[in-house]
Write a structure and sequence with these properties.
four-stranded mixed β-sheet, alpha/beta, single chain, globular, 414 residues, 13 helices
Length: 414
């Protein structure tokens, strides 16, 4: 577990403290500074290794130092890293065409982050409404949702903790609970200003909460009947993580707007908004833009990530290893599930949440001390979103490290 990466130089003693005194204090960091990685494993600056079950929060699709991705990015860096969107970027069209083929949609706008993709989606919905003569468009959003930390995406987010201190929030949002058509209908009936429904196919930051397949189908039908945009945020759950390219595809539906980011570039910052026919021509020159979005390096990363995923069958691997990992948790934690100390193990593919009956943020550092990287979200949910290259052997290692720590935590007094 603690051997240095073959071929790398061991870090000399003494111990190097992970500290960033000149960096703005915006994160509750674990006291680790990572140096390098290989596959699903990373090493810190002191030579300790960790099994990476977080994947940069669903970003490192291909793991670390992938032998096909790295040379491709090196090749691109030696050619051109960035050019303005004043000019055509050939790989924008290559990547856009591929995303259109995979999604069954129409065209793509490229940006740099999931927040930017979601912000663009909100702008699309508002302009869609204005183009129909609706002066104050309203968008349906969800409890426990997370769409970003800009003022608009923060307003669409359903977490009062992250909203606190940043009011006044942007108006124009109607909030409903997930998986309840009755609530959706009650909140919107008779309101002529509604223009869109905006949801995550699986809520990530909110606690790995999946939308039910029947609910997604019903919402798609409702949007068609009422001429609303169905906008599905696939920033965290998309790009093969659940065993399909996009999590909503399990319901057999196609959205009108689909924000993407995270895993699309396997670590290189990239965001995208994929639009169907109803939304494809809303934006015209001057309506929206970005400096870094769609630059040559990011586009090469996206093209190569998808190519490698297809060549190596990583969607199928995500489904298989995710099923294995979930079954192993259910077996090892059977007593805790029966007692209610573990409330639920949920998710799809390699997007798994273990929901405990008590807060468990202490597990993040405890797992790191034992050579495993995870996160905790919504206070009580252990989130696992590892690289899609994870093997069943590595999945078993996750269980062997994490489950004893869960059991120990649950035995402690509140």
């Amino acid at each position: 577990m603690n051997a240095a990466l073959p071929g790398s130089e061991a870090v000399a003693s003494p111990f190097i403290e992970a500290s960033s005194p000149h960096v703005m204090n915006t994160y509750g960091r674990v006291p680790i500074a990572l140096s390098h990685g290989q596959g699903c494993r990373v090493w810190d600056v002191n030579g300790k290794s960790y099994l990476d079950a977080l994947g940069g929060i669903a970003v490192n699709t291909l793991g670390h130092n992938h032998p096909k991705l790295v040379p491709a990015l090196q090749d691109q860096i030696a050619k051109i890293i960035h050019s303005s969107n004043y000019y055509h970027v050939p790989n924008q069209e290559v990547l856009a065409k591929k995303l259109v083929e995979l999604s069954g949609m129409t065209n793509v706008f490229f940006c740099s982050t999931g927040l930017e993709a979601n912000e663009a989606a909100l702008k699309l919905a508002r302009k869609f409404g204005h183009d129909k003569g609706i002066e104050r468009p309203e968008i349906v959003v969800y409890e426990k949702a997370f769409h970003g930390r800009s003022i608009a995406t923060l307003s669409a987010t359903g977490n009062p903790k992250v909203q606190a201190g940043f009011g006044p929030l942007v108006e124009g949002f109607i909030r409903v609970p997930i998986n309840s058509m009755d609530s959706l209908l009650a909140a919107t009936d008779g309101n002529p200003n509604v223009v869109a429904v905006f949801l995550e196919a699986i809520q990530g930051e909110g606690g790995i909460n999946p939308m039910h397949m029947d609910y997604l189908k019903d919402v798609r039908q409702l949007c068609d009947v009422r001429d609303w945009l169905l906008m599905i945020d696939e920033v965290q759950c998309g790009m093969g993580r659940t065993g399909k390219w996009f999590a909503h595809q399990w319901a057999g539906i196609v959205p009108d707007v689909m924000p993407l980011a995270k895993g699309l570039g396997s670590g290189v910052p990239i965001g995208a908004v994929v639009a169907g026919p109803k939304a494809a021509n809303i934006f015209q020159p001057g309506n929206h833009g970005t400096t870094f979005g769609g630059n040559p390096l990011a586009m090469r990363a996206g093209v190569e990530t998808i190519r490698i995923m297809e060549e190596e069958g990583l969607m199928e691997n995500a489904a298989r290893v995710g099923k294995h990992l979930t079954a192993a948790f259910e077996q090892v934690l059977a007593a805790e599930l029966a007692s209610g100390a573990v409330k639920e193990i949920r998710g799809l593919g390699l997007m798994i949440g273990v929901d405990l009956a008590k807060p468990c943020s202490a597990l993040v550092k405890q797992c790191a001390d034992n050579g495993l990287l995870i996160s905790v979200t919504a206070d009580t949910v252990i989130r696992l979103v590892p690289p899609l290259i994870m093997s069943t052997t590595e999945a078993d290692e996750v269980v062997s490290i994490l489950c004893p720590l869960i059991k120990q935590l649950l035995l402690e007094q509140p």
